[in-house]
Amino acid sequence: MARSSPLSTVRLVVSSNGEQYRVVEVTGANDGSCIREQIFSKLCIPDDNQRYFAIYPSEIGSYALGAALSDKSLFALCRDRGDPSGSLKFFVSTSPNQPPAHYEPGYTTDFVPSFLVNRS
After folding, report:
1. Which terminus of the chain has fewer Cβ atoms in its 10 Å neighbourhood, N or C?
2. Which pLDDT belongs to residue 29?
3. Where do the domains of the chain lie?
4. What's the pTM value of the predicted model, to 2 decimals?
């Protein structure tokens, strides 16, 4: 499979809970798997648990606003609509309509309110 030209300056805004966001620099990415890896890394999702998570188009304060993105569609979206100011936003979760639960594989408690983590 031929690789696409690397992305020019592109920054993404990503969240696993629709409230806390991180900026992900994907400048120079050659394909969607590279972008996906950078997003998962920024959200501290371990390699062996990434298969449980999907990346969805989103907006600030929202969960998924569309279907999960394949590597090909993720790259195309970043290539066609990505920019240096972070106009593209993504929701990363095990479900399109809610954040991952703190007990799900690979999820860090950095994004979970302490009152949920400390429940017995």
Report:
1. C
2. 95
3. 11-117
4. 0.81
